[in-house]
Amino acid sequence: NAGVTQTPKFQVLKTGQSMTLQCAQDMNHEYMSWYRQDPGMGLRLIHYSVGAGITDQGEVPNGYNVSRSTTEDFPLRLLSAAPSQTSVYFCASSRSRGVEYNEQFFGPGTRLTVL
Amino acid sequence: AQSVAQPEDQVNVAEGNPLTVKCTYSVSGNPYLFWYVQYPNRGLQFLLKYITGDNLVKGSYGFEAEFNKSQTSFHLKKPSALVSDSALYFCAVRVNTDKLIFGTGTRLQVFP
Questions:
Q1: pLDDT tens, B54-71?
Q2: Is the N-terminal amide bond of A8 cis, ω within 30° of 0?
Q3: B94–A contact, CB cutoff 8 A
Q4: B79 and B101 in contact (C-beta within 8 Å)?
Q5: How many of the other CB atoms lie within 10 Å of CB of B30?
Q6: Considering only CB atoms, which chain A residues are within 8 Å of B32?
Q7: How confident is the model at residue B26 (pLDDT cuts 50, 70, 90)?
C-alpha cells in the first residue's frame, strides 16, 4: 500500500492564481481531512469528509473548497490564492469517523508559497 | 471549548536520559487525548492515545504518557532518550467524533 499520497510536494503561486492540491489514499478509508501547518500554530483543520459525497468545514475553511467524488481522492482547491495561504498542507485519512477510535494516517505534505 | 497547550517550544535532553514533553488540556466532558510525532519532511505519525482506563498509556517506540485528571495534563515520557527520537511532537484533543485540535508542537532535540 502507498498509504496517503499528496501531490505536488512543492508549489509556488502568485496572488490570485488557483490550484488544486491532490490527495489520494489506497486503504479504503472513509474519513479524510485536510490540515494546514503554520509555525507556532500547530495543525489546523481546514475541511474533512466522512465518506464519498459528504464534506464539512473545519476550523479554517475560508478560501478553500473540497469535494469527495470517490472514496480514494480528496482534492483541496484554492480558488484565488493569497499570501496568507502560504503554509504546509497535510492530508490525512482514517478507517472511519470517530477520531477517538481510528488512527489518522498522514501524507507527506505539500509546501505552498504564495507570492 | 476544547483546547490543548504545549508550554515548551523546545526540549533538549542528552541521549540516555529520561525525557518529558508536556501537554495540558481543557475539555468539557471526558477527555480523549493523543500524541503524534513528526519527523523532518514527513507527515505526522500516531504515537499513543488515552480514551479511558489506566492513567499510564504505552505507545510506539518506547514512549508512554501519563494522564493526570487533577492537573489536566497528558505528558509524554520515555525512560531513555535516543538521538533518533529528535522530532516535533504534537499533543491533540478530541473536539467531537470528527475533529481533533492539535497543540502548537514541541521540538525535541536529543544530543549524543
A1: 999 999 999 999 999 999
A2: yes
A3: yes
A4: no
A5: 11
A6: 99-100
A7: very high
pLDDT exceeds 90 at position B24: yes
Chain A hits for B104, CB-CB cut-off 8 Å, are: 40-42
B99 close to A (CB below 8 A)? yes
Q: Are A8 and B71 in contact (CB under 8 A)?
A: no
Which cell goes with B79? 525512560
The sign of the CA dihedral A30, B98, B92, A113 is positive
Q: Is the pLDDT of residue B95 over 90?
A: no
CB contact, 8 Å: B42 with chain A? yes
Report the amino acid identity of residue B43: G
Question: Which residues from B are below 8 Å from A50, CB to CB?
Answer: 98
Mean per-residue pLDDT, A85-98: 94
CA distance A47 to A3: 20
Taking the CA of residue B8 and the nearest CA in chain A, the distance in Å comes to 11
Rounded CA gap, A99 and B94, in Å?
A: 7
